[in-house]
Design brief:
- With 413 residues, the chain is α+β, with helices and mostly antiparallel strands.
- It contains 16 helices and 6 strands.
């Protein structure tokens, strides 16, 4: 005959096998219904069963397991709604089997009065599990986003500075949908406040550009307080010529809005082919912004193609400094210095040598403008109203802006 202890051990073994069987059924049914890997329910039904038996809350270790499962769901590509649904489904399925499992372990049916207390413990544990799952999921998702942003910024830096080998750049660019063998245009936009990776400008710009140009090959990133957009050119050359302006007019206002208003400006490089072409177009866009600032240009979209003459002027700084010194240096002897006279010349040329319009722009009387132009003629020997003197004066005034003169001293050999 078997002893009482042997009978107890045999019943425990039978009951344990039945519990394992039921828990496996719950996991299989819940995961199959939602198309979620069973591994994402690892240990959860058993933890709920233990709570139902003991009335305790989820342990620290069990909550840590739920956080781990939340992170695993991100790695598996399972969305948070699906993750929550599969755990709730498993909870409901286990709840319907609890009377059977608890009755078998106790050797008697579960009383109705006991179910209320058991239910409170189980659903309290389920709430704690969902909170841990969500926390683990959100934390893992933030880590993925941070890593992707770091990878993006590293690639953008390598692409725009030319530090990485061309072959490696082409390979890495494919993960961003860029085919660097073709031609691309780079636009750099700025606002009164710096643009950073958390401002939302990058995502808004990519969405707007995809809506306008389709999936042509696009990359946007915040760099040095500005928004940089790289866009592939269409096959036809005519469509590529005006692409920079179109991109600038789209992303400029977006940068302004994400920077909470204020004036914006965008520089557009010319289209160039290949990885080094992207770098060249980026440099042109940055130079366009900087030149526009030096010249105090009013337009918000600055195309590098329109500023080629200024690049020619700035290329030989020594010659430009010599020209400014020769033509405009005598103005420093005027009462009040050279600044008012240079500003008057600049305004006079920008409005087509119209004295009345110059006066309106500078908030002066026409007589004051005429007097200043006369002083320029007396001090320099150049007459702003004389066609033969127009070019040297215009180039000298432009050079003064590029060099920051007279606020900054000229660099001369």
């Amino acid at each position: 005959m078997r002893t009482d202890s042997e009978v107890v051990m045999r019943n425990a073994t039978v009951n344990g096998s039945r519990v394992d069987e039921v828990l496996s059924e719950v996991v299989a049914a819940a995961s199959a219904r939602h198309g979620v890997p069973p591994a994402l329910l690892d240990g959860y039904p058993r933890a709920l069963l233990t709570v139902a038996r003991t009335g305790r809350t989820l342990s620290v270790e069990e909550q840590a397991t739920c956080r781990r499962l939340g992170g695993a769901a991100v790695a598996m590509g399972v969305g948070l709604p699906a993750l929550v649904d599969v755990h709730m489904n498993a909870s409901r399925r286990l709840w319907s089997r609890l009377p059977e499992l608890l009755g078998a372990s106790r050797g008697r049916p579960v009383r109705s009065a006991e179910l209320m207390g058991i239910g409170e413990a189980v659903w309290r544990a389920a709430d704690a599990a969902l909170a841990a799952l969500t926390a683990g999921y959100v934390g893992a998702q933030r880590l993925v986003v941070r890593r992707e942003e770091e990878f993006r910024l590293e690639f953008v830096d390598d692409l725009l500075t030319g530090r990485a080998p061309i072959g490696l750049l082409i390979e890495r660019a494919e993960s961003f949908g860029l085919q660097l063998n073709g031609a691309h245009v780079v636009v750099v936009a700025e606002a009164q406040r710096p643009v950073d990776s958390g401002s939302g400008a990058r995502g808004a710009a990519e969405d707007a550009l995809r809506a306008r140009f389709g999936d042509r090959g696009l990359l946007a990133a915040a760099r040095n307080g500005r928004l940089v957009c790289v866009l592939g050119c269409p096959p036809d050359e005519a469509g590529c010529a005006d692409l920079g302006r179109q991109v600038a007019e789209i992303v400029g206002p977006l940068v302004s809005r994400t920077a909470r208003g204020g004036r914006w400006r965008a520089g557009a490089g010319r289209p160039h082919a290949g990885p080094r072409g992207v770098q060249r177009s980026y440099q042109e866009a940055v130079e366009a912004l900087e030149t526009a600032g030096q010249l105090r240009l009013e337009q918000q979209v600055i195309q590098a193609a329109d500023l080629l003459v200024y690049r020619v002027l700035a290329r030989d700084e020594t010659a430009l400094s010599d020209l400014v010194h020769t033509v405009l240096e005598p103005l420093t002897g005027a009462r009040g210095g050279a600044v008012p006279l240079v500003e008057t010349l600049e305004a006079y040329f920008s409005v087509g040598r119209n004295a009345a319009e110059t006066a309106r722009r500078l908030h002066l009387s026409v007589r004051a403008v005429t007097y200043r132009l006369q002083r320029v003629r007396e001090l320099t020997g150049y007459d702003a109203g004389e066609p033969a003197h127009h070019l040297p004066l215009l180039v000298a005034v432009t050079g003064a802006r590029l060099l920051g003169w007279p606020q900054r001293p000229l660099v001369r050999e």
